[in-house]
Amino acid sequence: MIAEYFKSKKIVITAGPTYEKIDPVRFIGNYSTGKMGYAIAEELAKLGSEVHLVSGPTALKVQNPSIKLYPVESALQMYDACVNLFPDCDIAIMSAAVADYRPKYYQDVKIKKNEEDLMIHLVKNPDILSALGHAKKSNQIVIGFALETHNELEHAMDKLQRKQADAIVLNSLNDPGAGFKHSTNKISIILKKGTIFEFPLKEKTEVAIDILNCIAENLA
């Protein structure tokens, strides 16, 4: 069923972190490696999907030549790429770890260490998942990701409702082997109708298959 469902589907996936520049040598970022998003993209390419991968900075390389890669750096760049791609897509899978805030002012020369305190004024980045969730048509599916450190299920369910996603893939930094910097992950998938599927710790390549099976079996 999974191969039949995903064949020829046009899918946009986000992966990796975003870097929000402070000056020419510094940025605000996070520890995301992009492994989860890249694993999903590679699996979808094997299944015959038309894959559009919007990737933040990562050391990973695309293996399947059919995957269309859109390298970006900042949350604003990722937002623009996703908003442009989404209207013609069947499914959006938002696995990137997008920075919630960016510096309001970019310094075009390196900030020198002159003061004891340095204040950086941050402004909120546009919410990519929410933008796609509220724009989706009845024939489109939007999947979000939530990496949490506490009250995990509560936060993930709130995110699912507020951002009008069809499902949220939840993982917790409290689970050993899950989240950033690992080749493994431990997830729960929460559907908008309230159903929750829980999975044990697995390699991210296997987690990708679990996610796609859940989409095909429950959201088709």
Question: Mean pLDDT, nearest integer?
Answer: 94
> Largest sheet, order of strands side by side?
5-4-1-6-9-10-12-13
Quaternary structure type: single chain
> Rg to the nearest angstrom?
18 Å
Distance between the termini: 10 Å
Task: Assign a percent range to the helix content.
Answer: 25-40%
Which key terms come to mind for this protein?
alpha/beta, eight-stranded mixed sheet, two-stranded antiparallel sheet, about 220 residues, 6 helices
Describe this structure in words.
By secondary structure, the chain is an alpha/beta fold. The chain has six helices and 14 strands. Strand 9 (141-148), helix 5 and strand 10 (167-172) form a beta-alpha-beta unit. The longest helix has 15 residues, at 204-218.
Question: What are the SSEs and their pairings?
Answer:
Blueprint: H1 2-6, E1 10-15, E2 20-23, E3 26-28, H2 35-46, E4 50-55, E5 68-71, H3 75-85, E6 91-94, E7 101-103, E8 122-124, H4 128-135, E9 141-148, H5 152-162, E10 167-172, E11 184-185, E12 188-191, E13 196-198, E14 202-203, H6 204-218
Parallel strand pairs: 1-4, 1-6, 4-5, 6-9, 9-10
Antiparallel strand pairs: 2-3, 7-8, 10-12, 11-14, 12-13
Nutshell version of this structure?
The protein is α/β, with parallel strands linked by helices. It contains 6 helices and 14 strands.
